[in-house]
Amino acid sequence: MELKESGVLLHISSLPGKYGIGTLGENAYKFIDFLAQAGFSYWEILPITETSFSNSPYQTLSAFGLNHYFIDFDLLVKDGLLN
């Protein structure tokens, strides 16, 4: 029997966020819970590196740097990692 899996392509910046852009915070966790409840197995997020002057995630300044816009500082404060 062949098992099939499915996923959703949604960039982190497309998640709702109180600062105008989605983050890897509370709404990302809610979205993952929604995907699991809906029976999806994968969430494809596309590149999350810092962008250059073009704002394209495919034209980046570094292959290793995370875009700091996706850091949820409210969650870090809530978890006691920042004050």
Polypeptide structure, described:
By secondary structure, the chain is of the alpha+beta class. It has one domain. Helix content is 22%, strand content 7%. The protein has two helices and two strands. A two-stranded parallel sheet has the order 1-2. It is globular. The mean pLDDT is 90.
Please give a handful of descriptors for the protein shown.
83 residues; alpha+beta; two-stranded parallel ribbon; 2 strands; 22% helix
Would you kindly provide a brief summary of this structure?
This protein is of the alpha+beta class and 83 residues long. The protein has helices spanning 26-37, 73-78, and strands spanning 7-9, 42-44.
Order of helices and strands: EHEH
Which residues sit in consecutive blocks of at least 5 with pLDDT less than 50?
none
What does the overall shape look like? globular
Number of strands: 2
Query: What about the largest sheet?
Result: 2 strands, parallel
How much strand? 5-15%
> Count of helical segments?
2
Q: For the CA atoms, what is the radius of gyration?
A: 15 Å
**Number of self-contained structural domains:** 1
User: What integer is the average pLDDT?
Assistant: 90
User: What's the end-to-end separation, in Å?
Assistant: 53 Å
As laid out across the biggest beta sheet, the strand order is 1-2
Secondary structure: helix percent? 10-25%
Structural class: alpha+beta
